[in-house]
């Protein structure tokens, strides 16, 4: 059969191919996002290969991957194209048999729709055209209506049991219809194959909804109701709206929101993610009838695979309505308004981390970064610049006041096990506070180590890396001496970076390099005085802030003493400022 199939024709149904040499064609890979074609087809050998994601194989494996089929189903699909009859082996259970049995049941359910079930759907605002398009039906009351029809069509009980249409009593062995007295929603996979059903009662009896049980064709963790229709509008940068139930999906489609789908009573899974990514989905809008606390809980519990591959937002409708009721009562503007506002998954993820750790402390900031590390790693198969990982990186950089560029360098470093030393953390900082002044001082000392003699040894260093260097560098005569002390240690990279920055002529003077060399000594000495004065002022201010905190909780007899100390420190700050201005 392989000889009858042209792999280029089969692949060409999914990929736009262009010539790439003798017997070869190229195009954009259907298995990962890319801008430049790395996917090739060898028509002479009958194989495909992607140089980007390394996917490869023959025409059968291509169809299996691109349409998410078992080998048997791919074989049968290609056999149909080639006009070849495929015989099932003895004992083989074909998914196609289940599709055929489900199609038989759908005909039965459709026949029984007129009456109370159709009246119910009309009251819910569905047009007859929508009811027809979604093939809605009704399972009548009674224990064996479908079973009797099946026997008349020479279908066996075993076939209906395997399709989940019958239930067998384990004690008596009696079988009876699973769906009775319910509006029936046929469930198709993304390829449009009829894999099962969902049924809803017309009254308040329980359970309200009943689905086909797990079968070889019906795997609810891989299915999204309405995706067979929604995929027609998908493309690059496409958004799906995930709602709660069948009626929500159908009503949304009727009002023009054709990207609506629903999971089958499960959370979104990694299997969903793989399928949706392949179909070109990049954004997911979750629209559930809950409050903000519920939305936060939804995003917090979201599968990490979903969160890392898609931009996810959570939305709620006015009055806590579900989508179907909102459209019936308020019309499309209610949906549009809800879609215009929502909670971002990356923001909730960040807020949860900040609630656990104090971002004002180095340890807290480090813990936040390490917790969010997996979510900030870019999936190499995603080629769009608005990926969730990049959005989270921007948010973390902004809120934690760290350099986005240095954060990226840390995340994309070669080390398999990511650690975060105090030096690395300080290196990411954008802050212009006391620790920045300490680094500036260290930079000047690397320009001229002899300036170490100007320090009086009383400065309380806050930056751990600076403290270690200042302690170890006493007596050093050159930058090389200092670097040698920290060879192979975490501080080495920081020192090298500061050394290059300290020798950057553009950072000090616009004069020529020769003039820079002449002035660097005087400049560095003045810089040390200036920076050390700044550090002293910062230290005094920090002490004032601490005394003010103690003053607020001190008993009245002790408050006067605190006030005197604060006044003395404030005078010392003013004196430092005057001395600094006088020497300028």
Automatic annotation (TrEMBL):
Keyword NAD appears in the UniProt entry: no
Entry GO CC: cytoplasm; DNA-directed RNA polymerase complex; primosome complex
Reaction catalyzed: ssDNA + n NTP = ssDNA/pppN(pN)n-1 hybrid + (n-1) diphosphate
HAMAP family: DNA_primase_DnaG
Comment on bound cofactor: Binds 1 zinc ion per monomer.
Family: Belongs to the DnaG primase family.
Alphabetical GO biological process terms: DNA replication, synthesis of primer
Record Pfam families: DNAG_N, Toprim_2, Zn_ribbon_DnaG
Domain topic, free-text comment: Contains an N-terminal zinc-binding domain, a central core domain that contains the primase activity, and a C-terminal DnaB-binding domain.
Function: RNA polymerase that catalyzes the synthesis of short RNA molecules used as primers for DNA polymerase during DNA replication.
Molecular function via GO: DNA binding; DNA-directed RNA polymerase activity; zinc ion binding
Protein name in the entry: DNA primase
Keywords: DNA replication, DNA-binding, DNA-directed RNA polymerase, Magnesium, Metal-binding, Nucleotidyltransferase, Primosome, Transcription, Transferase, Zinc, Zinc-finger
Organism field: Deinococcus budaensis
EC number: 2.7.7.101
Start and end residues of each Toprim domain: 238-318
Enzyme class: transferase
Cofactors that this protein relies on: Zn(2+)
Zinc finger residue ranges, CHC2-type: 29-53
CDD domains: TOPRIM_DnaG_primases
Subunit structure: Monomer. Interacts with DnaB.
């Amino acid at each position: 059969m392989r000889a009858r199939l042209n792999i280029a024709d089969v692949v060409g149904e999914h990929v736009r191919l262009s010539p790439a040499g003798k017997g070869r064609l190229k195009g954009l890979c259907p298995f990962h996002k890319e801008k430049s074609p790395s996917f090739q087809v060898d028509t002479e050998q009958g194989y495909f290969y992607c140089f980007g994601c390394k996917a490869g194989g023959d025409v059968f494996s291509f169809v299996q991957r691109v349409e998410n089929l078992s080998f048997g189903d791919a074989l049968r699909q290609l056999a149909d194209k080639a006009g070849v009859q495929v015989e099932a082996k003895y004992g083989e259970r074909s998914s196609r048999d289940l599709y055929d049995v489900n199609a038989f049941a759908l005909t039965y359910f459709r026949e029984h729709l007129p009456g109370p079930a159709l009246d119910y759907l009309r009251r819910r605002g569905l047009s007859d055209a929508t009811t027809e398009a979604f093939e809605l039906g009704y399972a009548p009351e009674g224990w064996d209506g479908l079973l009797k029809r099946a026997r008349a069509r020479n279908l066996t009980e075993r076939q209906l049991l395997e399709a989940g249409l019958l239930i067998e009593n384990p004690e008596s062995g009696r079988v009876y219809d699973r769906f009775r007295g319910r509006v029936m929603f046929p469930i198709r996979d993304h390829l449009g194959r009829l894999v099962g059903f969902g049924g809803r009662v017309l009254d308040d009896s329980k359970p309200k909804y009943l689905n086909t049980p797990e079968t070889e064709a019906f795997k609810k963790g891989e299915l999204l109701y309405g995706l067979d229709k929604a995929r027609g509008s998908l493309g690059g940068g496409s958004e799906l709206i995930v709602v709660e139930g069948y009626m929500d999906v159908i009503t949304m489609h009727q009002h023009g929101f054709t990207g609506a789908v629903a999971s089958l009573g499960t959370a979104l899974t990694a299997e969903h993610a793989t399928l949706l990514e392949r179909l070109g989905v990049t954004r997911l809008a979750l629209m559930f009838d809950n409050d903000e606390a519920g939305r936060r809980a939804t995003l917090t519990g979201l599968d990490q695979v979903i969160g890392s591959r898609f931009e996810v937002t959570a939305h709620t409708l006015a009055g806590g309505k579900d989508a179907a009721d909102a459209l019936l009562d308020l019309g499309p503007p209610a949906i549009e308004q809800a879609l215009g506002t929502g909670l971002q998954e990356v923001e909730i993820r960040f807020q949860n981390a900040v609630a656990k750790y104090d971002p004002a402390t180095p340890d807290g900031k480090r813990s936040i970064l390490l917790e969010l590390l997996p979510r900030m790693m870019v999936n190499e198969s995603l080629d769009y610049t608005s990926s969730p990982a990049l959005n989270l990186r921007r948010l973390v950089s902004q809120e934690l006041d760290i350099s986005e560029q240095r954060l990226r360098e840390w995340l994309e470093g070669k080390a398999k096990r990511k650690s975060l030393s105090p030096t690395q953390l300080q290196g990411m900082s954008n802050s212009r506070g006391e620790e920045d002044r300490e680094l500036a001082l260290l930079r000047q000392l690397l320009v001229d180590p002899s300036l170490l003699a100007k320090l009086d040894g009383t400065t309380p260093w806050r930056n751990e890396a600076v403290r270690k260097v200042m302690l170890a560098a006493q007596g050093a005569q050159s930058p090389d001496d200092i670097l040698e002390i920290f060879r192979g240690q975490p501080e080495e990279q920081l020192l090298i970076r500061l050394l290059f920055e300290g020798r950057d002529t553009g950072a000090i003077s616009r004069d020529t390099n020769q003039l820079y060399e002449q002035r660097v000594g005087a400049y560095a000495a003045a810089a040390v005085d200036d920076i050390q004065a700044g550090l002293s002022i910062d230290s005094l201010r920090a002490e004032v802030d601490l005394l003010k905190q103690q003053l607020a909780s001190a008993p009245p007899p002790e408050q006067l003493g605190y006030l005197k100390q604060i006044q003395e420190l404030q005078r010392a700050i003013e004196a430092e400022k005057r001395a600094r201005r006088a020497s300028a």
